[in-house]
Amino acid sequence: MTYRHYAILGPDSEIAAAAAECAFDQGRFWEYYTKLFENQGSASFNKDNLKRFAFDLAFDLPTFNHCLDTDKHLELVRAETRANTEKGVTSTPTFFINGQKIVGAQPYEQFERVINIFLKK
Hints:
Helix 3 runs antiparallel to helix 4. By secondary structure, this protein is mainly alpha-helical. It contains 6 helices and 2 strands; from the N terminus they run αααααββα. 59% of the residues lie in helices and 7% in strands.
């Protein structure tokens, strides 16, 4: 399974995705990703708030802050967003299983059906 960013909600979504990559550098991507989703709509994803989330999660702050302040992962986020747009992604979540697109939060059975088709081939 591979996760790819699709930051289409403007600069805040791009910088939040880049911050998640800074969390990945510390081996804590999913923990930070969860924190972002818990706070969507209630806090702006500016750098100060993104750093506060890292503080709340007891990250190595000098390393995280340097990563975020230097925009270390911003081009990666932009490149993944462009690539996803080129693949026809228009919303999240979107999944690809052996190239077959599944859009939206689908029930387990939908994924099972598609996976089983490929397993039988």
